[in-house]
Amino acid sequence: MGGTTRNVLILLVLAGAVYAIPGGGRSAEFIAALLSILITASFAFIGYRLYRENRVALFSLGDRYRATLYGAVGAAVFIMAVRSRLWETAAGTLLWFAVIAGASYALVVVYRHYRSYSF
């Protein structure tokens, strides 16, 4: 059985569970929460692996640029976590774009510093 056929069958089983099982909406919420946890755990694992593989390069950036890097990543993660609430207002949307732009700029600054010393 091909990968596409398997994925379609999985979707049909999940849709059937939502439709036929009493409290199917709760099943859908559970599956969505489970998928969200799995995605978050995979991002955490990828971040851990990237840190372990690039530890020397990170420490050779120096305290200032390493703090800038960690601050930019932390700001981006935080702003993505509160995105749905911020997008409810115009000021929140503007704040979201400003923080994303600032974090992106900080990452570019760190990357340019990293490339200037050709580690």
List the main descriptive attributes of the protein structure presented here.
2 domains, 6 helices, 119 residues, single chain
Domain count, please report it: 2
Number of helices: 6
Shape by Cα distribution? extended
Task: Give Rg in angstroms.
Answer: 21 Å
Q: How far apart are the termini?
A: 47 Å
The structural class is: mainly alpha
Low-confidence stretches: none
State the share of residues found in helices, binned by percent. over 70%
SSE series: HHHHHH
Give me the count of strands. 0
Please give a structural write-up.
There is one protein chain. With 119 residues, this protein is mainly α. It has two domains: 1-53; 55-119. The chain has helices at 3-20, 24-53, 55-59, 63-81, 83-86, 90-116. α1 (3-20) packs across α2 and α4 packs antiparallel against α6. The longest helix is centred in the first third of the chain and has 30 residues, at 24-53. The radius of gyration is 21 Å and the shape is extended. It starts with a helix and ends with a helix. The mean pLDDT is 88.
